[in-house]
Amino acid sequence: EVYFKNLSKQKQKEVMEKNGNNHKLRVCVATCNRADYSKLAPIMFGIKAEPQFFELDVVVLGSHLIDDYGNTYRMIEQDDFDIHTRLHTIVRGEDEAAMVESVGLALVKLPDVLNRLKPDIMIVHGDRFDALALATSAALMNIRILHIEGGEVSGTIDDSIRHAITKLAHYHVCCTRSAEQHLIAMCEDHDRILLAGCPSYDKLLSAKNKDYMSIISMWLGEDVKTRDYIVALQHPVTTDIKHSIKMFELTLDALISFNKRTLVLFPNVDAGSKEMVRVMRKKGIEHHPNFRAVKHVPFDQFIQLVAHAGCMIGNSSCGVREVGAFGTPVINLGTRQTGRETGENVLHVRDADTQDKILHALQLQFGKQYPCSKIYGDGNAVPRILKFLKSIDLKEPLQKKFCFPPVKDNISQDIDHILETQSALAVDLGGTNLRVAIVSMKGEIVKKYTQLNPKTYEDRLALILKMCIEAASEAVNVNCRILGVGISTGGRVNPREGIVLHSTKLIQEWSSVDLRTPISDALHLPVWVDNDGNCAALAERKFGHGKGIENFVTLITGTGIGGGIVHQHELIHGSSFCAAELGHIVVSLDGPECLCGSQGCIEAYASGIALQREAKKLHDDDLLLVEGMSMKEEEIVSAAHLIQAAKLGNTKAESILRTAGTALGLGVVNILHTVNPSLVILSGVLANHYVNAVKDVINRQALSSVKTVDVVVSNLADPALLGAASLVLDYTTRRIY
């Protein structure tokens, strides 16, 4: 024991040094009503008794300042506490709206007070709506909160308010082991929870031997003996006001019939209290010879009254908590204290719907004597709380940390899995094949379908719908949620309307085609359509080298030459959706004819079709094949044969590829001088063959200010499908087009 005492003293010394040797902990205690003051007063006395450690500021608000509830602020003054601030925060009306308005009024007034006081910590008690306003204000103003009596369970709205304050509070003082476990279950930090017991028990357990007869005589009459009177204290149940008023009426009827001297305390300020007072007056309680109706009894005297009563009846927490310390019989009515830990002295009448039930309970309980209960405290709460306050390190981070229990890994709850399962249907309309794929948020092609691209519009659209419906059905089996459909197609596209304006010669019957409407109607999904070059750029922006790059250009080197331009992270479409037709940049005034009808376009030099054309010319002149090459009679000459011949030393083939690379490089230089990107990405089957040639032309022909541009080869296996998927995955998550 000595060891632990010394250890505690050393810790307090260290904390004082951390907080500053001359710094006293400035504690603000805010009290709202007679009930919470009975719990806070012992702590306030303890703080006041140690001025070398603490500075105490007292704020009084709520029903303390209302005459109808006894002007109970006077007992704080009688206890010789200086009240720093009085805040009138109660909006009269005693209904649900008045409670809400009272919270709002407190929230309006408290910031000014807290700004002036600047406390290090605020002590808040319990579960009243006033306390919620206090805790909310302090939390939002970055003031540490110590919550008294958190973790307990009871009925009505008080439960919700108590737990809400718990989540706002930084430190917790609880009264029972169960309450401590509840706080831990609510993910509060165990190191910031103190199991101290109820502070009011520090008074209760030393109060019973004091002179009590004079107190009983003063409040109930000189002819009243100990254990021959009843104390009644009943409050409205805010979640069922109508029933609680009826129950109060039945209680008074039962007490009248029981015919014992009874001290009736007025209810608290909750919604419904005004109606309860009307019931008292309707039954003439204030003038009945057996009744004494009072607004307030000082706590010291109230202790003596309940300690020597024959019975206490009602639904106050005092009945199930403090009265147990004396073994006085208690009748707990209704649901207001449901869930509270109670001693054997408490008889519950949960469904107090008849006078006979309540009367029978009085007959069972009145005059009994039960063993004293120490469920809620052992009389040493205040020293523990003061020690806890001294241990608070003000240099610790203010932000609360919640101690969540370990959760079993569940793939459906994992963010990566969620992102993966958010998927798109990607459609790629090529000159030869029609492809549909399920593409995940991470760019994984989960499932792919390929068919030959039909020659007519009707057959092509029917096949697109059939393949998309099949893929959408399969998506359910592979745990993918389809967000929409993205379509990549050759030609000029109006992406706003989802219409193919003009197609390339590679895809027949594909001009002025509305793709969005029929596919969206059939699948009930949003549909996006764009040019295949733009889609390649989008694929790079989301999954490839363009990720995080503000300005870059993608060049597709395949059957044709296309591309896309990303400027300030956005794709450029142009005023007539013709931007980034990079294959038709003219690099020679008298060059070969292009499929577009012009001459000298990049595509006329460097596309797969152009290389195939030159390869066929060489083959027709018997100048293509060299040693190490062979071709079957029926084999069609392609660009691949030209590239193979160049690798095997065919100088004619080398010259053609060099010219093609130079043409592409000149086109890239023009792009650099026009839009000044920081990155050029070469994509498609010919990219690896052109990358060095393009870099050489840039070094020879480009302005020095753009020569530092990076030129890289795409690492994406299927940019057309990934780009079509990006149309969906980007725009459905950003909500921007």
UniProtKB/TrEMBL annotation:
Entry keyword set: Allosteric enzyme, ATP-binding, Cytoplasm, Hydrolase, Kinase, Metal-binding, Multifunctional enzyme, Nucleotide-binding, Phosphoprotein, Transferase, Zinc
Coiled-coil stretches noted in the UniProt entry, renumbered to this chain: none
GO cellular component, as recorded: cytosol
Cell location: Cytoplasm, Cytosol
Reactions catalysed: UDP-N-acetyl-alpha-D-glucosamine + H2O = aldehydo-N-acetyl-D-mannosamine + UDP + H(+); an N-acyl-D-mannosamine + ATP = an N-acyl-D-mannosamine 6-phosphate + ADP + H(+)
Residues annotated as catalytic: 532
EC number: 2.7.1.60, 3.2.1.183
GO process terms (BP): UDP-N-acetylglucosamine metabolic process
Pfam family, one: ROK
Main location: cytoplasm
Sequence positions that bind Zn(2+): 584, 594, 596, 601
Pathway: Amino-sugar metabolism; N-acetylneuraminate biosynthesis
Residues annotated as signal peptide: none
Domain UDP-N-acetylglucosamine 2-epimerase: 53-390
Keyword Metal-binding applies: yes
Residues the record lists as binding an N-acyl-D-mannosamine: 492, 504, 532, 581, 584, 603
GO MF annotation list: ATP binding; hydrolase activity, hydrolyzing O-glycosyl compounds; metal ion binding; N-acylmannosamine kinase activity; UDP-N-acetylglucosamine 2-epimerase activity
Assembly notes: Homodimer. Homotetramer. Homohexamer. The hexameric form exhibits both enzyme activities, whereas the dimeric form only catalyzes the phosphorylation of N-acyl-D-mannosamine.
Family: In the C-terminal section; belongs to the ROK (NagC/XylR) family. In the N-terminal section; belongs to the UDP-N-acetylglucosamine 2-epimerase family.
Protein name in the entry: Bifunctional UDP-N-acetylglucosamine 2-epimerase/N-acetylmannosamine kinase
Natural source organism: Irena cyanogastra
Upper lineage: Eukaryota, Metazoa, Chordata, Craniata, Vertebrata
